[in-house]
Design goal:
The complex is a heterodimer of chains A (379) and B (406). With 379 residues, chain A is an alpha+beta fold. In chain A, 18% of the residues lie in helices and 23% in strands. In chain A, α5 packs across α7. Classes of the chains: A alpha+beta (379), B mainly beta (406).
């Protein structure tokens, strides 16, 4: 096998230099899909830490997508000398060659039991993760190739040394200890490569895959870097990696859904934006429903807000309720019914969770219950 | 910043990492790692190239997650709708059995059973052929069955033929928000709605059998959507004994369909119903209704631009037998008793009587040229108090609609 001989030689030649460098080089694979996550260099298990590739920037979002309470480490790498372009309402336009890696993991206690918690404070080792306190589950890679973005799911192996490409996804039994000490068992489902596009193609007509999280409104927040705290957009600007924006203050900003000091409407809309808006937008896969939940700043007309809107093709997903949102009555709102369900034929979002987001459900319920009026107003 | 040779150094960098001593060990065995047929088929779907035919042999194959296809020009072919069975009985994830988001797609000769949500969904795509498919919930009709059997939505040029849909808790074969549709030689049984055309333009529905559903064939328009449906021909179908108790969840639009409805048109325009054999549908053989009879026209939830009234409905040369003898709705029961007696029947065609008063007097809402068949205007707007058997409003004709071709 000539390919492998070549590999061995190349490996021998380059390993010395690589090993002498404590950093790890990021490699954007522009054609092939490497079998091992470590090949990318974006995130890599080294000793008892998950370390970041050189020039790979960690980031997080004002309000994240719910994925069975898994914690996430998001990392973006922009090719040297290149810049992302600012787009106000979509993810930044990262140049060809950019790579994003999103690692899903659970915090664990000293016995190795996985925890259901919103507390990230024990997760980190520098800008990477502390493998003594977390268990890695999967890493999803987005690579911007010449013809567009490609999404690749990698599943972490049992000894946490590397993750392996599994384009058909996977299903992993998970046991979590909840904060009240009780347990929760479920099957954590890793989407297949097509299902990645189910969310990451926010325009269902062009079907072009793009990142969702790194849009200005989600990114516009402070992050604790190794060298200090800084607004994520300001940092990109300062490092010369972002064109088209002069300061983060000029960009939109979603609320942090957990920030009880923020207005309820903004928190709920931020939650619905990141959890639903990638399909529930005027061009998304769920435009079939005429129910739009993206971009909190955007006011949709009656008939698209969900308020008193009859469902289109919800089928058994109505749960016996007549409208997407009934103001003042979360319990009779289809939106809430579907968020509270674990039945794959009923639940929303359709993919990406096996458990109910109790905190998210409460937020959206509170939001609906605070609305005025009713649905009896005849036309 | 040092410029790295990122694009050229791929293999080198990859190996450099592997050479560092913390190299990857073989992956652990996991439920996700076994080479089940689920994984084999999903891999084929991921790797498919335009022009590929993916053959699925005879046998029953179990899946616990949705399958999906995004590549244009692919054919999926089984060995027969009773031979190749994709069973989703243990499904834990995914809102459908197979989700297709691609053009030039053909699926034929297989069955999709017991999905938690829809069996086969095609969301946006041109030139879709669905042939010899069976979708079925094998436990029979149940409220918690998946919503739709065969469900193309926002598609164009879609042919559905020789297929069977059984047990859907909403609609067996449902084409939504699409253009140019041919639905022929299918059989829909034990669904809430047998065959349904919703917010679609140019549909020919013929040579189908719809029986034992709550409603046999539905032509609907729903509010708030980008596309308003019109121009559907329903002909040469056999629509009989659609008397199944409605088992849809309330809120689903079909939950308002009274059990025992043969063909029903809601808020759609230019619908031609002819040469069908329609019999023994207990509420009525044909119902023509406005959105007022099914939904709530709230200002907050329904766009003002929505037209809730059916217009240009043309019914002719159908064969009717029985039906209308035991309507499911209380109002209609009372009305039948009062007008036609205990042993009498409601007429073959029922109209809810809602009209758009702003249209000119000569507007042809409903034309009937169907021998002895009669229309009853049940006076929905007046609370069913003043039903009318005056046939003169319907003695008109409409230009015939063209055949759907693509």
């Amino acid at each position: 096998m000539s390919c492998c001989k070549q590999w061995l030689i190349l490996g021998a030649l380059s390993s010395l230099a690589a090993c002498s460098n404590p950093g790890q080089t990021v490699t954007p694979f522009m054609d092939d899909n490497p079998q091992n996550l470590s090949d990318w260099g974006m995130v890599m298990a080294k000793g008892r830490a998950l370390t970041l590739g050189e020039d790979a920037m960690p980031y997080d979002l004002n309000t994240p997508l719910y994925t069975d309470t898994a914690h996430k480490l998001r990392v973006v790498w922009i090719p040297p000398g290149k810049k992302a372009k600012y787009r106000e309402e979509r993810a930044l336009d990262f140049p060809v060659g950019s790579v994003i890696a999103k690692t899903f993991y659970y915090p664990k206690d000293s016995t190795g039991t996985l925890l259901r918690t919103l507390d990230y404070s024990h997760d980190f080792a520098g800008e990477g993760l502390n493998l003594n306190t977390v268990r890695l589950v999967e890493t999803r890679v987005l690579i911007h190739r010449e013809k567009g973005w490609v999404a690749l799911p990698y599943i972490w192996n049992a000894d946490q040394s590397d993750a392996v490409l599994e384009r058909t996804g996977g299903a992993i039994p998970i046991h979590l200890k909840k904060q009240d000490g009780t347990g929760q068992d479920f099957t954590y489902v890793i989407p297949n490569a097509n299902q990645c596009a189910g969310c990451h193609a926010p325009n269902a007509t062009t079907r072009k895959i793009e990142p969702i999280g790194p849009a200005p409104r989600h990114l516009n927040k402070m992050y604790a870097y190794q060298d200090g705290e800084e607004n994520q957009l300001d940092r990109l600007i300062r490092l010369g990696r972002l064109d088209g924006l002069t300061a983060a203050t000029a960009a939109p900003q979603n609320a942090n859904w957990l920030d009880e000091g923020a207005p309820l409407d903004k928190r709920a809309r931020a939650y619905l934006d990141i959890n639903c808006g990638h399909c529930h937008n005027p061009h998304g896969a769920a435009d079939t429903s005429a129910f739009y939940l993206d971009r909190p700043e955007h006011q949709y007309p009656a008939g698209n807000t969900g308020l008193c809107k009859p469902p289109v093709a919800a089928g058994q997903g109505t749960g016996g309720h007549s409208f997407d949102i009934v103001p003042g009555d979360a319990e009779n709102s289809i939106l809430v019914y579907r968020m509270a369900s674990n039945n794959p034929g009923v639940m929303m979002p359709e993919l990406g969770r096996s458990t109910v987001d109790k905190e998210g459900l409460k937020l959206v319920s509170d939001w609906i219950n605070a609305m005025d009026g009713d649905c009896t107003n005849p036309q | 910043m040092i410029l790295k040779n990122a694009y050229v150094g791929v293999a080198v960098a990859a190996l450099a990492l592997a050479g560092c001593g913390d190299q990857a060990k073989p992956p652990a065995k996991d439920t996700s790692q076994n080479d089940s047929y689920q994984k084999i088929l999903q891999t084929q779907l991921l790797d498919a190239k335009p022009g590929d035919v993916i053959e699925i042999p005879a046998g029953t194959f179990a899946f616990d997650r949705s399958l999906s296809l995004t590549v244009d020009g692919v054919t999926i072919r089984g060995a027969g709708q009773d031979k190749t069975i994709l069973s989703f009985k243990g499904q834990i994830s995914g809102a459908e059995g197979l989700l297709v988001t691609a053009n030039d797609f053909t699926i034929e000769n297989l069955a999709i059973e017991d999905t938690k949500g829809d069996a086969l969904k095609i969301n946006e795509g041109k030139n879709i052929t669905i042939r010899g498919i069976r979708t079925e919930w094998t436990n029979g009709p149940a409220t918690d069955n998946g919503a739709y059997g065969i469900y193309p939505v926002q598609t164009e040029n879609v042919l559905i033929e020789d297929s069977i849909a059984i047990g859907a808790s909403d609609s067996g074969i449902y084409v939504g928000q699409s253009k140019n549709i041919i639905m022929r030689r299918n059989r829909a049984e034990y669904n809430v709605a047998g065959l349904e055309i919703e917010n679609s333009i140019n549909a020919d529905v013929y040579d189908n059998i719809a029986t034992n559903n709550t409603g046999g064939i539905l032509v609907f328009n729903l509010p708030n959507l980008e596309q308003r449906g019109e121009q559907t021909r329903v002909y040469n179908n056999k629509v009989y004994e659609n008397n199944l108790k409605n088992f849809a969840h309330k809120g689903a639009i079909v939950s308002t369909v009274p059990a025992g409805t043969g063909i029903i048109v809601y808020a759609n325009d230019r619908v031609e119903i002819f040469d069908n054999e329609i019999k023994n549908n207990k509420t009525t053989n044909i119902a023509i209704a406005s959105y007022y009879s099914v939904g709530e026209m709230s200002k907050r939830g329904v766009k003002a631009s929505f037209d809730p009234y059916p217009e240009g409905i043309y019914i002719y040369d159908n064969t009717f037998e029985g039906g209308g003898n035991s309507p499911a709705l209380l109002e209609l029961k009372a009305l039948k008793l009062a007008m036609f007696g205990l042993k009498g029947n409601l007429p073959d065609i029922m109209w809810d009587g809602y009209v758009n008063a702003e249209l000119p007097a000569e507007t042809k809402r409903l034309c009937v040229q169907n021998g002895d068949a009669k229309v009853i205007n049940v006076d929905g707007p007046g609370g069913y108090k003043n039903p009318s058997m005056d046939q003169s409003p319907y003695d008109c004709t409409l230009p015939k609609l063209p055949e759907v071709k693509f």
